[in-house]
């Protein structure tokens, strides 16, 4: 673990700013925008390159395009960065950082299109001696097998014309404690010189520790295993939920019980599904790359299958309960609470809610949706309106106003069935109010 002393750190920070003071960040989303405002705050002249002119205009007028992040709103309002759609600005920068999405297609195949396009923009606008960093989450091998050949086109030489490193992003949307400034990071370069240059830059803007990895592949692999670790642990409790539903055991309470063990246990909780741009996506990058080298990640694939099965599990539970009360799903009004993939943020990417809604509609249910972060996509304007219209309600996102719902409020509005997709509501009180309750594993 590379630890530097405050005096050394300060001189590193000063030298980094003195020598290299212009940064271009390609991609101004959940990762790039917080990084850009941080670079500006630490004294770098910071350009942000985005595809969307509307987003560029918002940022240049001091308005963050990312909903629900007050701290980011405050920093963007300072107008410390210059956003543009013109990638030509990269040729002014000493450091070019790629922060574009790494999604999967509908068959869960990795899509490196955005990374290739960003690398091409850097290659076409390279400034001699530029430090190129990839922050996007990628599998081991992408920097050396995909990005490096693009940068080396036209005969450019690594170590002379440019340097290449990877510093995987660790943004955690909505986290009140960990943010782009204080989260520890890892960094790895194609050569030790690349690693060192990137480490000096990150130590000049971050308060958290920066660990230098022995290779760029190690840095790529670090992020992938972090998120695969989370995905398999969630799959573990989702499988337990299905099993305990049959055994009549409350899995939520059992996990709380196991969590009293102060070591060697890390609580994860079952839910209606795994969403977001990280956890349900990143394992596929390793699965696919390992397959090309002849290794089948059966365990990672199975975890993905289990987590992807949760939206259907939720709808099946609803069908069973409606059957019990003599109601087909077809024609029944079902209210879905929440579109976001996680509580109290406005992010819909890979959200299980979308799959639940699609399934409900495929059974010809009459579906209403409400999410305060997504008024455009909601079919009603208030929580009250959704509850009053719905015979059955699925709590899909643990937004604070949803988890505060009481049995009395549900009863007063005539809700007959509640599927608690986040195990967030008071099961006993709801049942005592005469409402059919089903959680995930409880
Ligand atoms: N989820 C569960 N059960 C759990 C935890 C999460 O079903 O016990 C579901 C959530 O409902 C959500 C999805 O998984 O749909 C992802 O949740 P998340 O809390 O992992 O949120 P993310 O996607 O914002 O993950 C980020 C990741 N951060 C980075 O990639 C830099 C992840 O590594 C973090 O562990 C996670 O935040 C976090 O801890 O909050």
3D architecture notes:
With 442 residues, this protein is of the alpha/beta class. The protein folds into two domains: 6-214, NAD(P)-binding Rossmann-like Domain (Rossmann fold), CATH 3.40.50; 248-442, Rossmann fold. It contains 17 helices and 13 strands. It has an eight-stranded mixed β-sheet, with helices on both faces. Strand 5 (130-134), helix 6 (142-151) and strand 6 (162-166) form a beta-alpha-beta unit. Helix 5 packs parallel to helix 6 and helix 12 crosses helix 13. It is elongated and about 75 Å long. It starts with 5 loop residues before the first helix and ends with a strand. The protein binds ligand SAJ. Ligand SAJ binds at residues 169-173, 226-227, 230, 234, 268-269, 271, 274-276, 278-279, 341-342.
Give the helix proportion (percent range).
40-55%
Taking all Cα atoms into account, the compactness measure Rg is 24 Å
Global outline? elongated
Q: At the third CATH level, what is the topology name of the largest domain?
A: Rossmann fold
Number of domains: 2
CATH class of the largest domain: Alpha Beta
Indicate the structural class: alpha/beta
Uncertain residue segments: none
